[in-house]
Amino acid sequence: MFRTSYLHIVMLAVLGQMFAIDANAQMVGQPQPMYGDPSMSGQPAYGPPMGANPSYGMPAPMTMPYDPGMGGYGGLPAVPQWGSYLELEATGLNNEAYGQGKVFVPMWETQNSLNFLDLRVLGNDQQAAEGNIGVAYREIAPSGLIYGINAFYDIRNTESDNTFHQGTLGLEMLSVNWGLRANGYLPELNAKAAPQFNTATLQGGNIVVNQGLEAAYAGVDLEYEQKLFGNGGGYGGCGECGGLYGGPQLEVWLAAGGFYFDAGQDNFEHIAGPSTRLEMRLLDLPSLGPDSRLVLSASYKYDQVRDSTYGGSINIRIPFGPQRVTRGYSLAGINRRMVAPIERDDDIVTNAGAFGANEVAQYRDGRTIAGVSTIDAKTTNPVTTFNSVAANSVIVVDGSQGDITTNGTFSMKNGQTALGGGSSLEVQGASSGSVANFVASGTRPTINNSTTNMDTFNLGTTSNANIIGIDMTGGLNGIFGNGNQNFLISDVMVSKASRDGISISGNSDGTVTNSLAMNNGLDGFSFDTMSGTVSDNTAAGNTRVGFFFRDASGTVSGNAATGNSLRGFFFRTVSGKVNGNTASGNQEFGYHFLGTVSGNVQNNVADNNGLNMNGNDDGFFFNSGLTGNVSGNSSSNNGNAGFGFTSIDTGAKVTSNIAESNTDSGFVFNLNGGDFSMNTANNNTAMGYNEFSGTPSGTASNNTGSGNTGGGNTFSLP
Questions:
Q1: 624: Cβ–Cβ under 8 A, 6 or more apart, which residues?
Q2: With contact defined as beta carbons under 8 Å apart, do 333 and 230 qualify?
Q3: How far apart are CA 383 and CA 447, in angstroms?
């Protein structure tokens, strides 16, 4: 697919060739009037120089530079009159910015006609790119007008990462002072998926999904341009003839037209409206030589789909090729118009939005959503209303009417979702499978549970239940469940429960993410055997433990335990992954692993833990045999050792951990057959490495450190 880097490569290559040729360029002789130029006295305004006498439509007579001693123009070969050029353009609009490169390459010409290639690449600031390959034919008619026809192949990669192909046909009629152009565009007309435009909305008490689609538009555009001003000048000092340089010329042009495009697809509106463009052209720049130009333009167009589009651009033309070396004069008059750029819509016109047909919404596992109900502070009995809703329903809990007060329990059924106002639920269309977020109406709610012996939410033994975007205070547990499967607790805040913020007993498999449990009577988060994911949660200021696991057989990642009265994290066993968590400011251990750890404990941080009145607790403490992997962890400023291992057994790896500035030793351990390597201990109050068994076994190497008060800055085994 085309990318803007390709444009840079093309530009550099062409510029290198151009300047290499230009280095040897010399101006030749006096001005030679070109076919179609009203120039020297005695020459016709249209037609060949006197004495050449070609037939119309035949190749131009070969002439030599003007020489008074030879009686004017002779019959020796002359160079082609129309040359190649590169145009570089930067455009800034109110809705996008883009850069473009154009290459104009003549292929064949006669005295009055020209075939040429037109190659273009474009890239914008929204990751879209386009390439255009065109062939064109222009001919100067006996009337003095240019008639032209062109055909292009276009390919576009859109912001939605869809690729569209298009063929176009253009017609032109140009004079020295005006021009008329029409273009027709025929792309492939099948709509393609644009997932970022998928929507899910509430209609008639049910959620419906509309698939995001993108389509290319077929259409036409028409434009008329008129020269408003021209100051003459140029090579030879004549606005209509060629010759030696006489100063740059200034022209002002105004163009106006309209366009109509239609996708031929249901729900896609047609795109139609007016357009206008004002250009100031500075021709024959001294620094770039004959046939160069600088164009400053402002443009505006409007349609009912894209609204107003306006902005400006700067374009510079850099001629290249043999004409710059041998012709030695600039084009003027009708000959200059023969190399005017083809004006067309370089973008394949596309439109994207939620244009798919209405589809019944499903949960992501394919279950149909039974319906949508709402409770708020004005609901007469919110608990009774909630508990009467059918399974697989969505219950919107809206906080826009104030806090919801209860002295009972919201009991979940299988497949239900309790969705806070303003929060979103990911759903999919029943037909297309298009995924979209349904955003609940209203604002985020707070539920105040005035009883201390009843849970605020009870999942029971349900499966596929979700609680999303709700704050709750009080109650026995904020959320309680038993052996729940495929559940989701997301973006929940639980505080001041008499027991745990969130407590799931039994063997459970679900997701708890992006939630906060603070100032609860026991633990912030409590799980028995959790084989799902607990990620990106925070437990702060809880009376006992931030995160409690009897067995972490799933993934525990990205969580933070801060300022809890006992441990930050407590694990009886770990058979899964404990990765990327942070424990700071907890009164006892940062991480306490009571039983066997056979899984991975990696890239966790323990800082300023164990600073209660006893001051005897480690950043990481492994109370039983370790057979898993402990690597990449950091432990600093804790009240006892950075890392404490009762036994590093065969199969275990303790590698690349860092212990710094702890009150006791950096590492206190019994190496009992495992691998202990590449660890670092710096500036600990006791030893860097304290292997207490006296008879270590296993492997140990590259363990380094410095500044430890009690020594032991290194540890290795032969």
A1: 593, 594, 595, 596, 597, 646, 647
A2: no
A3: 11
Asked whether 364 and 231 are in contact (CB, 8 A), the reply is: no
Structure tokens at 469: 């975007």
Residue 614 has a pLDDT of: 67
Q: Is the separation of the CB atoms in 469 and 423 below 8 Å?
A: yes
CB count in 10 Å sphere of residue 125:
12
If you write DSSP's letter for every residue of 537-583 in order, what string do you get?
A: -EEES-SS-SEEEEEE-SEEES-EEES-SS-SEEEEEESSEEES-EE
What residue ranges of the chain have pLDDT lower than 50? 1-77, 233-245
Could you tell me which of 91, 86, 163, 162 has the C-alpha nearest to residue 125? 91
Q: What distance, in Å, lies between the first and last C-alpha atoms of the chain?
A: 58
Domain boundaries, the chain: 84-195+211-345, 545-718
Residue type, 640: N
Long-range contacts of 346-349 (CB under 8 A, 24+ apart): 346/100, 346/120, 346/122, 346/130, 346/132, 346/154, 347/122, 347/130, 347/156, 348/130, 348/154, 348/156, 348/164, 348/166, 348/185, 348/187, 348/216, 349/185, 349/187, 349/216, 349/217, 349/219, 349/261, 349/271
What CATH number labels 545-718?
A: 2.160.20
What pLDDT does residue 659 have?
Answer: 98
Distance between CA 679 and CA 713 in Å, rounded? 11
Backbone angles phi, psi at 15, to 5 degrees: -60, -40
Measured CA to CA, the distance from residue 222 to residue 612 in angstroms comes to 81
Say whether 97 sits in a helix, a strand or coil.
Answer: strand
Take residue 299 and report the two structure tokens written for it: 């443009």
- Of 353, 357, 352, the closest CA to residue 209 belongs to 357
Q: Which CATH class is domain 84-195+211-345?
A: mainly beta
**Residue 336 main-chain phi, psi, to 5 deg:** -65, -35
CA-to-CA dists, residue 617 to 592, 604, 608, 713, angstroms: 9, 17, 10, 22
Cα dihedral: 676, 679, 683, 687 (round 10): 10
User: pLDDT at position 81, please?
Assistant: 83
CATH topology of 84-195+211-345 equal to that of 545-718?
Answer: no
Side chain identity, residue 484: N
Measure the CA–CA gap between 690 and 354, rounded to whole angstroms. 64
Comparing CA positions, the residue from 212, 180, 186, 189 lying closest to residue 199 is 212
- Report which of 89, 277, 249 is spatially closest to residue 179, judged by C-alpha positions: 277
DSSP one-letter string for 140-160:
E-TTS-EEEEEEEEEEEE-TT
Amino acid in position 216: A
Reported as type and span, the H/E element at residue 230 is strand 218-230
- Farthest-apart Cα atoms in the chain, separation: 118
What tokens were used for 605?
């941080």
Question: For all residues of the chain together, what is the average pLDDT?
Answer: 87
Helix (H/G/I), strand (E/B), else coil: 8: helix
d(CA 467, CA 88): 56
